[in-house]
Structure formats: structure tokens, C-alpha cells
Amino acid sequence: MSEPDSHALWEYPGVPLSTPADLLQFDFTMNVPDENLTNVVAMPFTSEGTCHCLVYWMEYQLDDTTTTSTGLENVPSQGQTLKWNRHFKQAVSFFSPPIQLFNPGTLKGQTGIEVHVKFEVETGSLTFEAFSL
């Protein structure tokens, strides 16, 4: 998997092969934590197709009713074309070679991706690693 790079995904058609997942949550009303933050998230595939990349974006919950996203404009249904926010670029890590998906939810082929994410408090950097399930 490549290092994340910014791309304006609204320019490229695509359909989701899994559901969006929270990798990390930050509470901006609190002080920066003393320890690094880490998380592991399993993302099962929900559709057949070719998985070219993993996309990252931020969503900011401003109050109980207001959220703004730098990624998806809506939560897509299976097979529905993704609609990305045109005012932001998204971080994209490409798989080389792309992952071919057949019969999602079975033990034939890849069943999903496990994402390991780390926020390093001292540098403010995020690192991502993805592994096939």
C-alpha cells in the first residue's frame, strides 16, 4: 500500500466496496493526550469488484446537530456512485496490485482490510498500515 497522497476524488467515479469506518476520534475541547493514540479497525468488504485504494478523510462534529465532512457528502448505498465533497481533497493510499474481490463475506478470496492507525502526539503525524483479511 502506498503512502497517503491527496486527490480530488469527485473527479473519479467509484462505488463503495465496504462501509465507512471511524479510524480515530479527536475531542478538540480537550487537551492533546500525553500518550500516542492507536487503533485497529476491521473493514469487511460488502461488494464484488476491484479495490484500488483506501480513502481517508475528516469529519468534524461542530455541535449536536452540525457535522461537516472533507470526504463523502452522503452515506452511499451498495452499488451507488460515491459523491465526494468538491471543496476538499481526500487522502488516498493505493494498493499495488489492486485487490480483486469475489463473493464478499465468504472465505473465497479477500474478505476485508484491517487498518492500523497511529497518531504520534509529539510530532502530530498520522501513520496508516492496511492488511488483507
Please characterize this protein's 3D structure:
With 133 residues, this protein is mainly β. Helices cover 0% and strands 41% of the residues. The chain has no helices and 8 strands. It has strands at residues 5-7, 37-44, 49-56, 59-61, 67-69, 90-101, 112-120, 125-132. It has a 3-stranded antiparallel beta sheet with strand order 1-6-3, with no helix packed on it. Strands 2-7-8 form a 3-stranded antiparallel beta sheet, with no helix packed on it. A hairpin with a 4-residue loop joins strand 7 (112-120) and strand 8. The radius of gyration is 16 Å and the shape is globular. The two termini are 14 Å apart. The mean pLDDT is 89.
Index terms:
single chain; 133 residues; mainly beta
